[in-house]
Each structure stands twice: as structure tokens, then as C-alpha cells.
Automatic annotation (TrEMBL):
Gene Ontology CC terms: mitochondrial intermembrane space
Domain of life according to the entry: Eukaryota
InterPro entries in alphabetical order: HcpB-like, Sel1-like, TPR-like_helical_dom_sf
Keyword Repeat carried by entry: yes
Record's protein name: Cytochrome c oxidase assembly factor 7 homolog
Family to which this protein belongs: Belongs to the hcp beta-lactamase family.
Record-linked SUPFAM superfamilies: HCP-like
Organism of origin: Helicoverpa armigera
One family name in Pfam for this protein: Sel1
Alphabetized UniProt keyword annotations: Repeat
Length: 250
């Protein structure tokens, strides 16, 4: 049946039928991809986060669908579809998602394990977190590559409280879990840039300008600066389009 999406009643019918189709594909045909779509439908269309959380959780644990593990991990982290967030429980879902080769889940697991700060009820484990981040970057997640670049740019201290980001001369004698390596930082930044991370492109430009981890090259510095600018402009345009979509004549 063809729907006229300019007619409100037909839009409502289309949306309801979509929900029926997703429920059939998930519960009767037991298709993980469709179960994930059902979760997205419950989240975005019905705004029923409790039911969406149950679908994502079941699809992660029962059908081993990595994208749903990432979703329920995020729900658990921020407290959506539950009373409050729980980073330690969220980590378990992210780790499962990473096991099922979902790069976003690997990224989140790695960031939680390498992070410190109030409200993070997780024992810091930089080597384990690094492996998750590396797996995510290897699967072409730009943020994971950018995050790894930052780790190598400054180094990762064993005791964060001893590290002074504003006075590098004060950090000479502290112990590092990952030592600063500008070449590694450049390589990860360049990959992140090639994958579309504008901040990484800006860093690559600066590293070419300074000769950090790579030979100085003003032409390459200018090239990557222009790439960073283009990505920023594209990002701003996308945000503007999203904001304006649905307005009359737009």
C-alpha cells in the first residue's frame, strides 16, 4: 500500500504498521536486526524508554547483537529506562558489544576503563582499556583513534594526581603506564582525520607545523588545516539542516 505522508491520518497508520512489522520480525521471526529496529522505534517514535531498554537488553544478551549492547550500555550509563545510571553495569554491556565486534561498544568500554573522576565506580585498567580502544580504532571508529592519539600525545600517568598538564617540566619523574610517543600520536591522529574527525585533522595540522612525531611540512600543515575547516563547516551545516527540518518550505 502506498501512503501519502502529507496526510496526518496516513502518517499515523504508516507508523503503527511499522511497529507491527518490527514486532513480528523480532518476536515471531526472531531477527536480531529487526529487534534492534523495534528498540529504535520504541525509543524514537513511542518515547517508551522502559520498553526500548528491555528490547535492547534482550537483543544483546539473547541474540548477541552488538549494536543493541551499545544501546543498553548507554541506557544503563545515563539512567535511561531505569532509576539511575550505573557505569560498572554499563561496562559489562559495552564489553559484550565489543566481543560481538561493535566498534562503538569497544570505544565506550575503553573510555570507561581509562577514565578517572567522580561518579565512575569502575577500577581503572589502562592496559585493558587500551586494547578495547585499539580494537575500535582498527575497526575504523574515528573517536577511538583520536582518543588513542591523545593518550600518546601526553602519556598516561600511573597516578593521575601527580600529573600536571600545565607544567610538563614537573612530570619528568612520574611513572607512566603509556609513555608519550609523538610518532604514535601522529599516526593515530592522521587515521582519525582520514576517518572524518575534525579535531584530529587540526592536531595533524599542528603536528606538521611543529614537527611533532613527523617532519615539519608547512604545505601538509596547511592542507590538514583546510580539511579540518571543511569538516567543521560540514558539521555546522548538518546541525543547521537538522534544526530546520520540518519547517515550512525547508
Amino acid at each position: 500500500m502506498a501512503y501519502d505522508l502529507k496526510q496526518e491520518d496516513e502518517v499515523k497508520e504508516y507508523i503503527e504498521n511499522l511497529g507491527i512489522e518490527y514486532r513480528f520480525g523480532c518476536y515471531k521471526e526472531k531477527k536480531p536486526e529487526v529487534c534492534h529496529l523495534l528498540g529504535d522505534y520504541l525509543e524514537a517514535i513511542k518515547k517508551d524508554f522502559d520498553k526500548a531498554a528491555k528490547v535492547f537488553k534482550s537483543n544483546c544478551l539473547d541474540y548477541k547483537f552488538g549494536k543493541s549492547c551499545l544501546k543498553i550500555g548507554n541506557y544503563t550509563l545515563i539512567g535511561r529506562g531505569r532509576e539511575k545510571g550505573d557505569a560498572a553495569e554499563a561496562l559489562k554491556y559495552f564489553e559484550k558489544g565489543c566481543e560481538y565486534n561493535e566498534p562503538g561498544a569497544c570505544l565506550h568500554a575503553g573510555m570507561l576503563l581509562t577514565a578517572t573522576g567522580p561518579g565512575v565506580n569502575i577500577t581503572r585498567d589502562v592496559p585493558k582499556g587500551y586494547n578495547y580502544l585499539k580494537k575500535s580504532c582498527d575497526q575504523n571508529d574515528p573517536m577511538a583513534c583520536h582518543y588513542l592519539s591523545g593518550m600518546y600525545l601526553t602519556g598516561v600517568p600511573k597516578n593521575v594526581a601527580e600529573f600536571n598538564p600545565h607544567r610538563p617540566d614537573k612530570n619528568a619523574n612520574i611513572e607512566y603506564l603509556i609513555k608519550s610517543d609523538k610518532t604514535q600520536a601522529f599516526n593515530f591522529a592522521k587515521k582519525a582525520c582520514e576517518l572524518g574527525n575534525m579535531y584530529a585533522c587540526a592536531n595533524v595540522s599542528m603536528m606538521y607545523k611543529r614537527g611533532d612525531g613527523v617532519e615539519k611540512n608547512p604545505d601538509e600543515s596547511k592542507k590538514f588545516f583546510e580539511i579540518a575547516q571543511a569538516l567543521q563547516k560540514a558539521h555546522e551545516t548538518t546541525k543547521e539542516i537538522k534544526f530546520q527540518q520540518g519547517l515550512d518550505g525547508k
